[in-house]
Amino acid sequence: MKTKTSQANTLPQLEPQTRPAASQTRRILRHLLRKRSAQIGGVIFLTLIFMALFGPLVIPYDPFDIHVEQRLQPPSLQHIFGTDEQGRDLFSRIIFGARYALQIMLITTVIGAAGGLLLGLPSAYFGGAADMLVMRLMDVMLGFPYILLILAIVAIIGPSLENAMIAIGVAGIPSFARLARSAILVVKEQDFVTAERALGGGNTRIMFRTVLPNILSPIIVYISLTMPTAVLAAAALSFVGLGAQPPMPEWGAMLVNARDFMVTAPWVVLAPGLTIFVVTLGINLFGNALRDVLDPRDTTSQKS
Fold first, then answer.
1. Is residue 179 a part of any domain in this protein?
2. Rounded to 10 degrees, what is the CA torsion of 126, 131, 134, 137?
């Protein structure tokens, strides 16, 4: 009887332990920091976060102050990036606009990832008619071009930066749902899931405590790759007047006001344009490095 009791007491210890997970995290970080693309992308991303958090404390001028007598001044020691058509300091507006870029990336990915997981997780786990219905709905949404779907949603709910973020997030749900479903279909057939089901684990516990942690790697990688797409989509919406509205110093909205001065004052276009390019490039570099490290089929990232 003691043997049976001791064996029964050991059953709950099948759950993952913290020490191997911590060592796995350290191993991933070690491989990630060795990649040059991760180093460059990480520096750019950390700079963006710093600008978003502490930008208002370090900017030399108020980004909303209008000085018509200083309009369209070229870059100088007084105005590093020059001034726009209303005499506002471009450097201050770029720094202040970083908070909008960070908000766009975070809010759109949270909406897309949460919606995709809430739809893809139960549909793939239970299967059947619910899975077919959800996937057909995702197919219908994927049948529309990405930017056209965003434009349609914004046209319905109205033009603003907040509505643009909602539209971009909703348009990203089908991709996250498809990715989650494909990963779950593989994980739910693994032996450790079958073992927990045999031990009496409920469906909710298995889905959220066993299956979900084992599909987070591709989800995290895809999040890092969709963030720059969200920034570009928001900039495109602002450029056509459906995103951020003046005088908000959002980078896409700044391009709208600057397009009439591409020849006479090119710095007005280059400042927000190059900022969008550098940020999206940096996050893409970091996302590609993260994909290489977390992809179990990649053997080169495991060598050291």
1. yes
2. 170
Token match 């279909």: residue? 185
The tens-digit pLDDT sequence of the chain (304 residues) is: 444 444 444 333 334 444 455 676 777 788 888 888 889 999 999 999 999 999 888 888 999 988 888 899 999 999 999 999 899 999 999 999 999 999 999 999 999 999 999 999 988 888 888 889 999 999 999 898 888 899 999 989 988 889 999 999 999 999 999 999 999 988 888 888 888 888 887 888 888 888 888 888 889 889 988 988 898 899 888 888 888 888 888 888 888 878 888 888 899 999 999 999 999 999 999 888 888 887 655 544 444 3
Helix (H) or strand (E) holding 173: helix 161-187
Closest CA to 184 of 209, 212, 220, 208: 212
Distances (CA, A) of 97 to 62, 66, 94, 102: 12, 17, 5, 9
Q: Which residue in 298, 294, 299, 281 sits closest to 32, CA to CA? A: 294
Neighbours of 20 (CB within 10 A): 9
What is the domain extent for residue 88?
Answer: 43-59+73-302
Which CATH number goes with the domain that contains 130? Answer: 1.10.3720.10
* Count of the separate structural domains present in the chain: 1
Residue 5, φ and ψ in degrees, nearest 5: -65, -45
- Helix crossing, 146-157 with 161-187: angle to 10°? 130
The answer to whether residue 19 is domain-embedded is: no
In a domain, 22, yes or no: no
pTM across the whole model = 0.80
Report the candidate in 95, 136, 262, 298 with the shortest Cα–Cα distance to residue 290. 298
Angular region, 43: left φ>0, alpha ψ -120 to 50, beta rest: alpha
